[in-house]
Structure formats: C-alpha cells, structure tokens
Prior knowledge:
The protein is built from eleven helices and 15 strands. By secondary structure, it is an alpha/beta fold.
Amino acid sequence: MTDGIAIATAGLTKKFGSQAAVDAIDLHVPQGAVYGFLGPNGSGKTTTIRMLLGLVHPSAGEIEVLGSPIPSGASGILPRVGSLVEGPAFHPYLSGRANLARLDAADRFADPRTSKTRIDAALERVGLLAAARKRYRAYSLGMRQRLAIAAALLAPRDLLVLDEPTNGLDPQGTREVRSLISALASDGATVLVSSHLLSEVEQICSHLGIMREGRLVAQGAVGEIRASSLPVAEVTTQDVEAAARVLRDLGLGDVTPTPLGVRGTPGELEPEVIVAALVQAGVGVRGFVFQSPSLEDLFVSLTGEGFDVSR
C-alpha cells in the first residue's frame, strides 16, 4: 500500500454465493480528499463500505485504512474513523443529547470526564445544540441525519465514511449536510462520501470512484476524470447528411444525427477547422457547440444508467 493514502484496497472482492457484489476493486483514497464514491443503487458501494469498516469479511483481497490492515487491525484504527452507514438508528423517546450520551458511554475509548464537552461540541458542529433537549422522534429527517453525523464526531476523527448522508433530505437539508462535509474536510479530515446524487459530488468532491455492477470503472481526481472524456462537436443544421459527410471526411469519430443536426468527437481538430470545412462544403450552419461531456454524460457512459441530478 502507498503512503499518503487514507484508504487502499487491492483486489477487494465480496461474493454472496456465486454472485460477486464487489469484484476485485483497487480503491485509492488520498489523505485529505473528499472522495465521492458513486454508482447506481446495487452497484456495490455499501458492501464495499461495510468491508472497509470491518463489518463484512471480504471473500478476497486486502484492505488498509489509515495504514492499518482491516479486519485484523480494526480495533486499533477504527476509533480514528467516524461512520454513517445505512441511515441513523437512535432511541425515539430520548433526546438528541441523551442519544449521543448513550453512544459515548458505550465507547470504551471515550473519556467520560469530557463527555458533556464533546457532546456539546458535536451538536454545535452540526447545528443541533438548540434542539439538543428535543426528543429524537420529533426531529425532522434532516435533523436525524445531522445527529448521526454528530455521533461520528464525538471523538476526533482522521477519516469519515458517510454512506448516502443526504438520502431522503429536502434541498435545504442537503445543502446543510454538504456544507458540513466541506467544513470537516477543511479541518483536515479525509471524507469518503457514497452517493448516487450527481449534484452532491460535483460541488464538494476532489476525487471520484465510480462503481458499476461491483466493479470500479473509473477513479481519480475530478479534473483527471473530466479530462479523460473526449470533447464533442455538435452542429445545428438542416443539412444533416451533408454535415455528417463533412465531419466523417475530417476524421471525426462517432458521427451521429441529433434532433437539431449532427455531432461527433473531433479528437485534436480545432473548432475553427471544422466550421470552415462545413461552410466551404455549402452546409448551412445555424449553430456550433464544442464542449467536453458533462459529468452526467460521463457517468451514463461508464455505468449505463442515469443519475439523480435533481438536487
């Protein structure tokens, strides 16, 4: 495994019977990164996270978290890891503060002399200090998610692993959790965020890992993944056949018609060259767009499925 990497796996695999839920993936999460772990539901994200935390034993492969092997070194390293996996679970008739106090009392690494100070700090960090005495059953969904994150912050953490932290939240709740994740990363924590919400990762993540059917199909810094996608030239014209012929003659790839014209991948061709060739061929050009595919386009091409981009 490599220095400067908060999470590293090699050939990590989990099979349920003959079905591989996670199939030989090599994760590399740099220290200090906000790593967006993406993929459609059922792509293996949660199973991977449960293996990283020692909750599920892998069928094959190796895991290192903060430099220690998992699961053999889990007892020594997991106190430095905060997590939210598959939604929060609290006692409905207890207050937010009382729920955190019970969790803190059950932590054998926590100092009971500093319990109140740490609970107050965690509640304040997630914006729940004013609602600390309110019973959990009266909390909104966004408040419940924030309380779960507060539970992960009762002790100093070098790594936070959050599985769908904005699941079911309204836009305001999503913004609050997103702001909190950015603040935690600014304080030096490494954050792995599992999500299927494209807008969430676009705004907060420095690195991405994209899953499809148990396989890791792309990984790297956001800029690197964007750069790996081919730019697209799109011509708006009524002379579709003539325009397509010109684009093919110029060597553009994947030339296909669109509702308003034709598009293709230009490679290293400059847009000026393409437009000039179209005009010289007598093609009536009503519009011309030259751009890199969006992250949404890239995800669809890698996973074969759309992402929820509504937030």
